[in-house]
Amino acid sequence: MELKGIAEPRANGIDRSMVSLTPVYDGGFTTYGFSLGILILDARYPRVPGDLGNGTTFTYPVVLQAVPNATPRRVVDGDASLLDTFVAAARDLEQQGVKAITTSCGFLAVFQKEMASAVRVPVFTSSLIQVPLVQNMLGRGRRVGILTADGSCLTEAHFEGVGWSSREIPVAIQGMEPYPNFTGSILNGGTTLDFEAVAAEMEDATNRLVRDNPDVGAIVLECTNMPPYAAVVQAAIGLPVFDILTLSDMVYRTMHRVPTAGPMPSNFLREPPRMTAVS
C-alpha cells in the first residue's frame, strides 16, 4: 500500500501535508479481507460451531470453498484420483487472494507436498503437521496420542506426507470406527448429528486411548470435525489437546503481526522520562 501526502495550507502552524494521507491500494481480486482459505469436503452433516466448516468457529474472516465429489469416505479411503481436484481448488483460493490454505480433512496429509508445491501461499492440509512439534514438547518416555476418524485407514503415508514417520516419532492411535454416531454422521453420508451422543463417544475413545497407552502426554485430533469436542477430550484426561484450530490460529497470527504496546512498570526505568519544552 502506498500513502501519498496531500499538500494543504498551513493552519495553526501545522503543515497539513504531513498528516493528511490518501491511501492508494492495489486490486486484482473480487473480494477482500480474507486471509485463510478452507477447502471443505462434499458432505451434508451439520457443521456445528467449532467445526472447520462453520464460519462462526473463527474470530477472523475465512473463505469456505466446497470441493465437489470429495466425500469424506473417498478422502479417508485414500482416493488418489482426487489430487488434481484439490490442487485446482487450492489454486482457485489463491486466485481469490487468501494468504494461506487448509482443508477440512486430516487424511489429506497425503496430498500435502503436491498441494503446497502448486501454489505460492502456505498450505497446511492436516493437523498431523503438529505431531513433531507436540512430541518435542513432551519429556522422555511420553508419546503423542492421535484421535482419528478411522484408525484402520490412517497409515505411514499420511505421516510421511506431512514430514515425519512413526518409526521416529512413536504415536498411539485411537480411531472412531467403533462408534456408530460419529461414523454414521461424519463418514457415511449422514445428514443429522446427535451432538451429545458423539460427545459421549469422543469421551469414551479418549479414555480408551489413554487407558491402553498410559504414556500419552498430549492429544492431536486428526479429524477437523472433532474440535467441537476438544473440551470434552481435555476434561476426560487433563492433557493438552491440539487440533486443526490450534494450527489455523497459529498460522493466522503469523500473517497478522501487530506492534506490541503497553507501559513497563516504573521500577524498571533506568532514569525518569525527560520532559521537553515545546515552543
Strand content: 15-25%
Tally of separate helices: 9
| Global mean pLDDT | 91
- CATH class reads Alpha Beta
Q: What coarse outline follows from CA principal-axis ratios?
A: globular
- What's the SSE pattern? EEEEHHEHEHEHEHHEHEH
- What strand line-up does the widest sheet have? 4-3-5-6
Secondary structure category: alpha/beta
Number of folding domains? 1
CATH topology: Rossmann fold
- Report low-confidence residues grouped into runs of 5 or more: 1-11
Distance between the termini: 35 Å
The value of Rg in angstroms is 24 Å
How many strands, what sense, and barrel or not for the largest sheet? Answer: 4 strands, parallel
The strand count comes to: 10
In the CATH hierarchy, the architecture is 3-Layer(aba) Sandwich
What's the helical proportion of residues?
Answer: 25-40%
Q: Quick recap of the structure?
A:
This protein is of the alpha/beta class. The chain is 30% helix and 15% strand.
Description:
This protein has a single domain (36-254), classed as 3-Layer(aba) Sandwich (Rossmann fold). The protein contains 9 helices and 10 strands. The chain has helices at residues 72-76, 83-95, 112-118, 131-137, 156-161, 180-187, 195-212, 230-237, 244-255; strands spanning 2-5, 21-24, 36-40, 62-66, 100-103, 123-124, 143-148, 171-175, 216-221, 241-242. A 4-stranded parallel β-sheet has the order 4-3-5-6. Helix 8 links the parallel strand 9 (216-221) and strand 10. Helix 7 (195-212) runs parallel beside helix 8.
